Amino acid sequence: MLTLAPAARAADTVDPAADKAAFQKFFTSKFPKLKLEDFVNGPYSMNEDLHKQWQEKEEFPPYEFSLEAGKEMFSTPFKNGKTYADCFPNKGIGIRQNYPYFDEKEGKVVTLELALNRCREANGEAPFSYVKDDMAALTAYMAFTSRGKPMDIKIPNDPRALEAYQKGKEYFYTRRGQLNFSCATCHIQSPGERIRAEVLAPALGILNAMPIYRSEWSGMGTTSRRFTTCNSQIRGVPLNPQDDEYRNLEYYLSYVSNGLPISGPGARP
Fold it and tell me: Where along the chain is heme c 2 bound (predicted)?
């Protein structure tokens, strides 16, 4: 935190490239034994015992049921005969690494979860819950088709995009809730340490594994679920999934992990 914060605060003029370099340098300096790509394994990258647990878990991954359901859902036509593939570039295959993106017409960040629900609504279907089950299954399948591809988030030379990025960054470092924690309190200052039985994950690469199966949840959850859960855990008031603040946060966190591979769907303790 002490290494990263001065560089972050010095960015009075928004400089995402400098932020990303400082962010990744902070983690690789703090954990010199880890390769950059190891951080996408979250808490399982933090010590040898946890890593062994993860390898064993991957032999029979708990997210497999969701992945299979998502593949079937993705290819099943809507009532009008169209499919999700009609809504996305490259028919929706191998594109996870490009989300979220800044939509210059709309002037806002568009996440994959939001794009999927917009696709459904444009084809006469009801939107899914943003936090689990069907949405988690669909994003699990789309993430799986991008596994190994480096996160590649673009920030166009548009002051609105830079503002969205900066607001996401500010949200990440702002303390809130009764515990007065920020996202950075756990995921910059304390990765590898425990809060009760939970090992805190590093912020670097934390979204590359989404969606995830969590033993704590006994099921799958999306990025939206992770954000709202984090706010609840610090005894704050969660925002509505896909509110601008959460979309901007996802934009910031994804951008600073550019270059790290997509590893979703993932599993966490």
Answer: 183, 186-187, 230
Q: Give the pairing type, strands 101-103 and 108-110.
A: antiparallel
Has 9 been labeled as part of a binding site?
no
Q: Are 265 and 66 in contact (CB under 8 A)?
A: yes
What pLDDT does residue 268 have? 87
- Structure-block tokens of residue 86: 């009609």
Asked whether residue 119 is marked as a ligand-binding residue, the answer is yes
Distance, CA of 254 to chain centre: 6
Model confidence over 187-225: pLDDT tens digits?
A: 999 888 887 777 889 999 999 999 999 988 889 999 999
User: Maximum distance among all alpha carbons in the chain?
Assistant: 55
Tokens representing 14? 């928004």
User: Hey, which residues are catalytic here?
Assistant: 230
